[in-house]
Amino acid sequence: MKRFAGLLVVVLAAAGVLWADSALSINGAGATFPYPMYSKWFDEYHKKNANLQINYQSIGSGGGIKQVTEGTVDFGATDGPMNDEQLKAYQDKHGSGILHFPTVLGAVVPTYNIPGVTAELNFTPDALAGIFLGKITKWNDPAIADANKGVKLPADDIVVVHRAEGSGTTYCWTDYLSKVSDEWKTKVGKGGSVNWPVGLGGKGNEGVTGTIKNTPDSIGYVELIYAESNKIPYGNVKNASGVFVKASLAAVSAAAAGAAKEMPDDFRVSITNAPGKTAYPISTFTWLLIPEKFSDAAKRDAIKGFVKWMLADGQNYAEALSYAKLPKEVVAKETKAIDKIQ
Amino acid sequence: MATTTTTVPSAGPVAGSRSFLSRLRQGDEIAHIITFLFAVSVVLVTLLLVFDLWQGSALPRHKFGFNFFRTSVWDPIFDHFGALPFIYGTLVTAAVSLVIAVPLGIGAAIFLAELAPARVSDTLEFFIDLLAAVPSVIYGLLGVFIVVPLMRQYIQPALKHSLGFLPLFQGPAYGVGFLTAGIVLAIMVIPYIISVSREVLLSVPRDQREAALSLGATRWESTWKVVVPFARGGILGSIFLALARALGETMAVTMVIGNTPAISASLFSSGYSIAAVIANELTEATSNLHYQSLIELGLVLFLLTFVLNGLARLLIVATSQRGAGMGNA
After folding, report:
1. Do both B120 and B33 map to the same domain?
2. Both B76 and B48 in a single domain?
């Protein structure tokens, strides 16, 4: 027992030294989708800069925007860019703006469970919009069958499954459907939570997958990372150039590269339905939200240092965690934008 | 303070202020003040809660007024918020759970308190208390992995086949929905009903039973006609404890209810509850109106609980007077 007590004292003392050493701590909150990436980054960056500790709480994009606007955290993170109204609210409160920095990319894939069908299905934008609007109700509907010649689809009712809770995944999915279907745009719109015309809500990626596995003839959508790590089969989606593309990191980066040429200066861009033959159409950036003005110079320099590192060395950690890297053009543009943080 | 000094005979004929000081030294007055503050803090927290919910939901209260309770569209994109499907879902799932849990729970409690040998009763009570302490997310997992597939494959087709003429058991059955949520809730609240009811039944005075038995009643007659009515107030209390838990349950419900804000007569169809939608949407609510509408839903849930608890209290008062009357007779 005594030896244990002695060991405990040593450990505590060591922890105390480390604690005292980490003089600066920066707090952030927001999106859940990039959380594994961010925690890896903050951990690696802490190893390189022992006296800087970045804490991140994955409370959701809405919460991230809210907290950074209220000034309770030093930076935020979101899966859907802030809209003009939210930017104005920030400007009104702080007297200065807030900047978007894309960090990595992700994708959302359609997944399904049709008894007897093992082939990878092809989905056209019209088919996806029709199914989720509740207009296409049978699996053998021509809108689906025509893109899947040779696959015997049943005449059964389609069960739609969507995310129950607000999420960046839903934002990306509905952003895509809004772009490819005018009816979706006017009836449902895009957002983290929407008024679904049909379907069951599953909680989280795991809830959606669980419901799909349990329900014959169902279709839903999950993050690419989740589908990959859990070996869930998913379908191909027809992109803006008319090619059926299976989601992959390369196809997501291709979508980003297609959009990079027209990247606006504030980086608030949607890359769903992006141009390019190899581009996967349901892809998205995820962003850090960093205030333009910091009252604390030490924090400002620390954040600038982190963003610089994230854009260079940090990107190399992305693919191991199934996130797609930023295209070179975007990295160059963002590196310039770091100077806007004052 | 003047009134309290007269009630304590040991204070003697000294002046009020001095007796107050002396009692202060003995600790009575200090204990009185401190425990009084503790008691008051409960009221304060409740009021603060209502005030905060009221303040936090100013936008939707002004924009929708009473329509918030009457409309059933919940659209965060186009800013329409109606609470009706959530209120409906909360009440229906709670009702289904009580319909299942009350007979089962009270029956089990009667067995444990009156009929089972003491060792069996105490052993089972240990397990029941264990069940009551299981976190609700575990019940949710039980629901997702066991109850939902069972419902979809066996129970719902069987119900459709036998009782399908009732609107309650019609329409497509996916396994999730009001009925499944009600069943999972019932599993969750049964331990409360058993545990509290058993204690109440055990505390019924022995002479009540003996009197009934000596008048020639059978064991069951004495239990059903004397002991249970005597304990009625406490049993009702256990049911309302269960109701309160069922109304506010979040995690287990959202995992099995289907999360569709819709009103349907069929218990097979998927719905939504107030607690579930708040938990699901609050973190990603980006617009102020959406956020505040969720807060207003919290206020609605609070009021719902308040009203139902008030009714429960009235019911207990009414029936326990009758029960006491029978006890005195």
Report:
1. no
2. no
